[in-house]
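assembly run, all chains below
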Amino acid sequence: MIRSSKRWQALALTAVAGLALSACGTTDDGGSDSSGGGGDAGASPLCGKSLAFLGALTGDAGALGQNMVGGIQLALDEYNKDNADCKIELKTFDSQGSPDTAPGLATQIVNDDDIFGLVGPGFSGESLATGKTFFEAGLPSISPSATNVTITDQGWTTWHRVIGNDDAQGTADATYLTEKAGASKVYVVDDGQDYSKGLAGKVSEVLGDAQAGSDQISVGQTDMSAVVTSVKAADADAVFYGGYYTEAGLLAKALRQGGWKGTFMSGDGSEDPAFVEVAGPAAAEGAVLSAPAAPAPSDFGATGLYATQAYDATNIFLAALEDGAETGEEINTFIGSYNEDGVSGPISFDDKGDIESSSIYAYFVKDGELDLENPEQIQ
Amino acid sequence: MKERPLDFGALFGSFDNFMSYTAGGLVFGAIYALIALGYTMVYGVLQLINFAHSEVFMYGTFAVAWTFVFLHGTGRVNQSLGEALPVLLAALVAAMIVSAAIALLLERLAYRPLIKKGAPKLIALISAIGASFALAEAMGLRDRFASWVGLDDNLKNYVVPGKARDVYSNPVSIQPKGLFDIGGYSVTDVDLVVLFAALAMMVALDQFVRRTRFGRAIRATAQDPESAALMGVNSTRVVQLTFLIGGLMAGAAATLYMMKIGSTRQNAGFILGVKAFTAAVMGGIGNLRGALLGGLVLGVMENWGSAVFGSEWKDVVAFVLLVLILLVRPSGLLGESLGKARA
Amino acid sequence: MAKDSSETKVKKDRRGFGEKYAAAPTPVKVVAVTLLLVLVYALPLLRPPILTTNSIDFGTVMFRVIAFALVALGLNIVIGYAGLLDLGYVGFYAIGAYTTAVLTVYHYSWPFFLALPAAIVVTMISGVLLGAPTLRVRGDYLAIVTLGFGEIIRITVQNVEWVGASAGIKDIPHPTGIGAKPNPPFDQGGLFQVPRLQWDGFVPIVDLEHKTSFLAFGSRDAVPYYWLILTFLLLILIGDRMIKASRVGRAWEATREDEDAAELMGVPTFKYKLMAFALGAAIGGMSGSFYASSQAGYINPQSFPLLLSMLFVATVVVGGSGNRWGAIAGGALVAYLPERFRDFADYRLLAFGLALTVLAVWRPEGLFPPRRTRRAKAAEAEIDALEEGTENEEVTHA
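ok done. output:
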């Protein structure tokens, strides 16, 4: 007993000493610039440091995060090959897409002095949960995939995205349905989650009177018979589904099997070959899937949804580095003035951090396959 | 999205729509019922909620898809029910074997040691929750396991490197054919098979429990395990048999499910499991006919609820209905326990 | 038999520790407890090696650990004391979080410390409202009914615009701090700043760059939140101890062991069950309230899945249902282990599931069974030994 309380006393002393030390060194942090500042003219002080990725790498949405990491890694590999003396590493932080896990990872990221920029966060929920942390710490971030409209309304000046937000895509999709596809009664379905409701909500809003009805399914739901009946009862000639490919595929399949013959359309969350696999080739035929991204060049070395955006986002940070930006503030300014063509389309940001001109493309399912090469630009 | 008002017209406004909602619900309700059997059997005998039963079902769905890949290859095609039938029957056998094996494994590893120790029910639930997590995760990591043993290349169509957690589809998409119309609902061959297969299996199981020696042993153990043991019933065997039957039925449910839905994933069991468990309680847990009734009622009420309140509220409708039923009939619709089933 | 004797030994050792503590003079006790408290409070700053999570912020993890422990403590009243299986506890957690969010930002702008008691009261009322009809249902069915309740709450907040629907509620204000207000991005505010330790192997280095502001609640640092919630956990612990030892605690125990007998002895079992339910709910709501106003200041319906209820039940049962320290330990383990072993990222859920099963099979009474269970086990062993004959008797009495 006595011995152990001695140990505790020692620990308490350490704690007291810690407090005393803090009293000495409490002159604001002011950054640790002592080592930076000039030196080698060519080598940036950021050489050997890291970019971070925050998003789902495991868990149910892990496949999307893996796509993004593929894109980031591709950009870094290309850069590191050309700049052997200034290698940039990637540190990945797996949130499993959960807004509950993300804040702890964000805190870890902002406390890691090796990290000078963030590609991510992957989803809208975790963006909203971590935006404040990154903003307060002044860490610039570019998200390849978070499309919720309200994120850029928070005044987080360090937050950017290289993907059109739900408003842009929703408007283009609704216009496509009424004007190109000639639909006059569109039934809108969402999956109750934020991304889906944002996109489907915008489509409904733009459709106005052309909306024949709306319903909501839930992620993981497989029985679509009620929605099918409602769609047929509303006599709809088109269905728009905002959400991901699994439920989109099941919905398309159930609709076709129920004998419904109209146009099926969905957004970027469904633009994946797995949509066709789930729906089956017959039911998927003729479906229209929009995405705020041009098809990847045929020699592009990464695959999957959001890989091109992640690649572009990474390249912006690397361009900032080549441009000589050293502090978070300089990188942030550089990102704000960036204006180049990426593989996913032309990239420049407005003052909120949204991509300025997002082109939306419609991809079609033809002959039992998602045709990724010949999309139609719809905005 | 705007909030929608209650829309009774959508359900009752036209006979066509009403029949359509009802028929769709019945078909899915039949699948609930088959899964619910697993919960009901185990509960009837052991008074335990077999939380991991959803994974027993999930492994069955994969067995179906794998059988198709194995016998048919990965080329994606549409087939009618008749064309797919031979492979489908093979898949049924495979799914029943796989599901039963998983169920027996569960019994052996997660339950029997606890039952032997006479552990409280709650701890068995935790054991089952743990097993459920582990089984679902193992399926989601199947690509890693394959690469550990160096078989990832040989098995890449089954384990799908990097996409093991993603949705996995049966390469053969079974196209239902409309046979006749009831109201506005075109009844297809797939729907009929699902409904009749489920009914037939229910009847067969019911007869098995009521008329055979094994059935009598199950009922005896459910009624009074100690007396049954004294009369020479081997209770471990009975428990095994219970899990075996639950597994076989889950395998059959998995086949019907894959026939109708066509794709699965490592977490596909969870929601269905919760629903099936709800159905079992609704009908009177421990009661085989109750499971059937509960499944069908739940399926239909979900669709009716979707029509009136919107699909987003259908689970709320289901659970509120459950509470109401339990308040009026505290032991479920048919209320009997497994032990009381008369010969 | 060898097993029985080893268990008696363990039991003896534990009593030995407790007796030694009880026998120590008061000043020693005070010093020991104070030192322990200081250590616990300083944990996220000391960042001891091995214990510290290395790929996720340790302070945030510790906050979640305490939040889980608080939930476990509340659920322990429902499951451990009153013996009611609640599979929808996440519903109360959500109600607490949403009440706080609605009161502090979404519809009103109350300060956090006013919203916290309000959230507790609201969840307590919701506990009574759920309990009143459903506690009359037979015990086993309670599980599915409460599970349904948890889902109903989640679906409702997901679809009702008044509570933010699927978008959730953001910008939930942080608790009011002490000292200067933080002024992002560089000024952290607070009265004074505390550096933390950084370990190079086992050599501590004082890290002067990443400092924690004393009681300034911002988004960059979870440690102040940890201190706040830890304080409340300690308060609840004291309350829990008092109520367990009171007439109410005994009534719960009687109800759990044999409801009919308790009723016959004049215990109004329904009333006490309802009380346990409401108290448990209130503590869950409190934890939810802290969660809502924590670092991120953002909640959405997806944060309250059914699965979380299962995890909550697991925390209580793994630790040892009915033992408050067991519940806390269970909560800590369930929140901590997956984060500590993030390196096994892909395998951590698999490992967690296996661990739950192995633990359940290996120690069915939980890691830290309540004293009552240990006593009962010892008595049982004794009876067995007596029944079986003399050769075992010496083992039990040894």
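Residues 178-216 of chain C form one domain.

The CA atoms of residues 22 and 198 of chain C lie 37 Å apart.

not gonna interpret more than that til we talk
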